[in-house]
């Protein structure tokens, strides 16, 4: 009864009942769906677990049998080494264990057949074939062993069993797939049923809701229409027709009473309206008196507001220019001045004006130390000046017109005059009371200017401190005792990609969340900050975290407490980027591991085969095989050690280079031919697209470069394929491109590829040996040859390594004329002036080996005549000559005085240490005896390279006479 009464009298109860009914129905539907899905999921998982266990046992049985067979074959291959037979027995024990486990969980006919096959094969192999063949081998009956394997079909029996266990494994896998399909169908059916029931539930809910809204909407429309008529001024007598007991019924009854009450009170309102009109006339007379009083109050309020505005203007801003503008403008309004100016008496004479021209401002500042301003400085009291208005100030006035100027000093608390103000009023003097009032205002202005000066000083110190912090290469963060950030530097903002203004005043939780979003080990970092900031762990001052965003970095954070008078008031936190140090440590660890593997592997082979040769009598062909292996592994060790030594010499700057001009095509051909023999799986394609294949370099070091690159191309294309070596010319460079079709290089590893000990972190690469030094050595050698190396690579498609050298253009026979001279091109000729015949011959040999044309003279006059006639490309000159009439200094002075000869490069070769004098006279370089002859050829080549505007080296070919 109570429920029925509640539903009739309360709309909310009706909607609540409807809502509860829908929620309960929907909850029951969801619960039924979840229970059903849970049951089928548990059933499928149990069946899957059994199938997976069977698959693991079958895989282990197959692996154990294969290992036993492999170890038995190894026993036969390595002269009956007992450790291999021990491994066979271990695999036998594993087979027994796994077979027993399979018997325990067998549940169908396929499992029983698999167990029977395994038991049969176990008995056949471990109790028949294995002991019988071992006995034959141990007694030297090798033919019997072969007979067991071939004639008695032991190998075929093994393959039959392997096919059987493979079929069993495939059957388990198919059964697993079938279970998955059944599970998917059941879940789909359940979801379809759920959707249908849910759709029916929604439809019922819509129908019920529409019925209820219709029952509520009709009475509401009647009430709305009656209310609109009353609002329009119509007399409406509303009658309740709903006969409802709920809120709508009560509302209709109340509205009926309200309409009757409005009709009764309408006549009373008409009578009261007449009385109000009479009172209105009386109020209008009183309003006129109040308007006059209000006008006087407004004038007083205007003056007060302007003064308050002046005080706010000087108090609410610390920008000096803005404050000065506010002062002069507001003072003009307070004083009633037509124009004014304020000027600070500091070095910059900062100022602001109102109504004053730029020329007038300039004139006022220019006369700050003279005229009427001097009186103001001496008395420090305001005063006024009456003067006849200027012609420009009169506008259209033609009679005499006076202006009044007020000079007001701005005096600080210490008695110093900080600024000067001047205001002008037209045709209205300043009274004494006004001057006193304005003088008191100037004292308030002085306080404001003092405050600004202090602020500027502190702001300058703050900016200086911030600039110092920003120059530090670590992220600096100062937090108070609550962990709130009170100072930071730009480096910290760069680390976390945030703005400087946003990190200041951040609470501990906010900035820690910002940092944690970019950090991998955020829990460890949070624990560190909690301990040092709040738990008082003074001893723990350092932590390392790994930042993942915006880029991957390793950051070391450490802290120090800040104390004042023995009490802690904050903590300095420093974030230091140690990514490079961390990577170096990782690379060192990897290097130690790599070196251990790369050195131990060949050493193990050398020691193992040496031990076999020492302890056993071997056939000559086997001895040769073992010695060949030892020789190859020893050469491999030699290459590794040479790489380590090369890197050490390069780092120490002790690597020497013997550079000469040479053709790289024969060099590349010989390297490729050697690799073609040793690597038949790779097809080499060598192509030359230029005739300018000369380079200035060390032949042995270039051989090392190309050997390393070709070895890499072979090593990282383990499946064979094409290797392309192309020599071509591009702009002013000679390039050699070595391309393979191998594994390729990940894009993120290319930038690090030339780092020492770096190896690509990839399972395919890790299978391939190496120390990570080859490309680092190549990079350094190319750098010493004024060249470079670049990479283009695509993962799984191959890589292209390109080395480039400065282009060297030689002269061929086709470029010569009929008389043997060069046609259209200058020869590179060198004249040596040296009276020591032995040294002259040595220098001549060195330069001719570098393909220069050389002539030698022992005395000055004949050398000078030859220089004038032949005009060589370079001169090598000794200072002390046999010719007493002309020494080297005389030759230099003479040549520098001839316009056509003064630009010829001169290289002084002398035992006298007068380098400054030689360079001052115009020599290009000065070599003090004794020196390496190769140094002279390099100096000449470098000078000729600089002279050639195209960036190409012009040298004679070996065929030039």
From TrEMBL:
GO CC entries: plasma membrane
Localization terms from the record: Cell membrane
Enzyme class: transferase
UniProt keywords, alphabetically: ATP-binding, Cell membrane, Kinase, Membrane, Nucleotide-binding, Phosphoprotein, Transferase, Transmembrane, Transmembrane helix, Two-component regulatory system
PROSITE patterns, sorted: HAMP (PS50885), HIS_KIN (PS50109), RESPONSE_REGULATORY (PS50110)
Catalytic reaction list: ATP + protein L-histidine = ADP + protein N-phospho-L-histidine
Membrane-topology annotation of the record: Multi-pass membrane protein
InterPro entries registered for this protein in UniProt: CheY-like_superfamily, GAF, GAF-like_dom_sf, HAMP_dom, HATPase_C_sf, HATPase_dom, His_kinase_dom, HisK_dim/P_dom
Matches recorded under Pfam families: HAMP, HATPase_c, HisKA, Response_reg
Residues passing through the membrane, by range: 12-36, 187-208
Single GO molecular function: ATP binding
EC number, UniProt record: 2.7.13.3
Protein name: histidine kinase
Organism, scientific name: Metabacillus sediminilitoris
